[in-house]
Amino acid sequence: MAVPATDDIAVWYALYRLMTDYWAEVDHSGGERAHEFYLPNALYAVGNNRFEGTDKIRAFYARRRQIGNSSTRHLVDNFQVFRNDAERARAAGVMTLYRADGRPPFRGVRPPAMIADFEAQCVWVDDRQWRFRSHLLRPIFVGSDLPFSIMIDPQRL
User: Fold this and answer.
1) How far does Cα 153 stand from its chain's mean position?
2) CATH code, 20
3) Residue 143 and residue 149: Cα distance in Å, rounded?
4) What is the C-alpha to C-alpha distance for residues 24 and 147, in angstroms, rounded to an integer?
């Protein structure tokens, strides 16, 4: 039996804000502070690539910034929240990634680089903030312009 989505609009908003603030950090700052959205032993996974712990997540985004001058936009949709208890909740939805090398504006049609289902286990922590315990992206559609998160070998970070 499926757990119903929460009717607690404050929790829904807080987790939506966590997710959109995270992707805004990635899009506008290259993920320089992305690791701060996670618990120390958290998991970030894209498909089969797993980045475990904030050190690996930080290393992933540092390496991503080194590979060139690309612009991205991560869009979140179909956002749902499922409350476990006062300190734990799960967020799920769809993330669409657009990317291109260089600086905007870009001309011409560019299909999404990836459309993925996501699931994030979130925890309310002492600093009175929600953080990711896990953030999993399951690619559904992947374009010919592969996202770095799929191309990289996490063992080489």
Assistant:
1) 18
2) 3.10.450.50
3) 13
4) 17
Q: Structure tokens of 25?
A: 């950090």
d(CA 147, CA 98): 9
CA angle (55 as vertex; 84, 139 as ends), nearest 5: 60
Q: Could you tell me the residue range of the domain that residue 88 belongs to?
A: 9-156
Is 2 inside any structural domain? no
Over the stretch 88-110, which tens digit does the pLDDT of each residue have? 999 999 999 999 988 888 888 78
Q: Is residue 1 very low, low, confident or very high in pLDDT (cuts 50, 70, 90)?
A: very low
Q: How many domains, in total, are found in the chain?
A: 1
Q: How many helices (H) and strands (E) does the chain have?
A: 3, 6
The pLDDT of residue 140 is above 50: yes
- Domain contains 4: no
Question: What mean pLDDT is reported for the chain?
Answer: 93
Decide if 146 is inside a domain. yes
Of the candidates 71, 79, 111, the one whose C-alpha atom is nearest the C-alpha of residue 95 is 79
Number of Cβ within 10 Å of residue 64's Cβ equals 20
Q: Report the pLDDT averaged over residues 61-76.
A: 92
